Amino acid sequence: MPVTPIVLHNEASVLNKFQELIEEIANESINDHDHFYVGFSGGSLGKYLCQILPKIKTDWSKWTIFFCDERYVDESDNESTFGFYKNNLIPLVALTEQQFISININDPIEKVADDYEKIIRQKFNMIKDVPSFDCLLLGVGPDGHTASLFPDHHILNENERLITWIIDSPKPPPKRITMTFPLINNAKYSIFTVPGKGKAEIIKKIFEDKIDFPAAKVNSKKVIWLLDQDSASECSIKFDTV
Ligand SMILES: O=C(O)[C@H](O)[C@@H](O)[C@H](O)[C@H](O)COP(=O)(O)O
């Protein structure tokens, strides 16, 4: 079950806290091992990161950005998560395209997933053990999915592969690759950034009804949920607002 969420007043204060946490974790990682290996998700997280990353102070050259999940579409497609960050974030911060580990959709999706896992293992220099990402940035869908780990999907039980694929995503587009729980749950930090009324129902189901959605199964070494009063509004449990 997830930890106690941090509830802030509104989206602006959620994003301020998110900015603080990313700056702190990134610089802690860089000071400790001279790089910051982070996983980005798609969806509204992209909008949040474009707002806050230009404000943080860090050595961008030490960042490598992987995808917690990525849609199996060309980067020119509006649905491409890498395409979104390439067009909207790179112009705002000193990151290069090469610092993003993107996918090659000229290959079959199975090979894309295998190759992505190989690249992760190479970057971490870990052929056998499960790499530990410095930080994964996650969202939660209204159905309780995170990354491309959807409820009742067989890949939730994947315990060997670090990266797998689906061809029947309930959230379009249907074909995606995704990190699996063995990889997600070995990360040092996972941060869910979930402001807004639109997520109040799923937040209640996760934190009050304690329904074991995929997002609730994220059990990285430290899991942080950033909510605001709107997204926490359906919960009768009154969390301390900071
Ligand atoms: O590529 C994706 O679709 C995302 O990785 C996905 O897991 C997202 O994080 C959730 O669907 C929440 O998205 P919203 O915050 O936009 O609802």
From TrEMBL:
InterPro entries: 6-phosphogluconolactonase_DevB, 6PGL, Glc/Gal-6P_isomerase, NagB/RpiA_transferase-like. GO terms for biological process: carbohydrate metabolic process; pentose-phosphate shunt. It catalyses: 6-phospho-D-glucono-1,5-lactone + H2O = 6-phospho-D-gluconate + H(+). Pathway: Carbohydrate degradation; pentose phosphate pathway; D-ribulose 5-phosphate from D-glucose 6-phosphate (oxidative stage): step 2/3. Its EC number is 3.1.1.31. One of its GO terms (molecular function) is 6-phosphogluconolactonase activity. Keywords: Hydrolase. This is 6-phosphogluconolactonase. It comes from Polypedilum vanderplanki (Sleeping chironomid midge). The lineage of its organism: Eukaryota, Metazoa, Ecdysozoa, Arthropoda, Hexapoda.
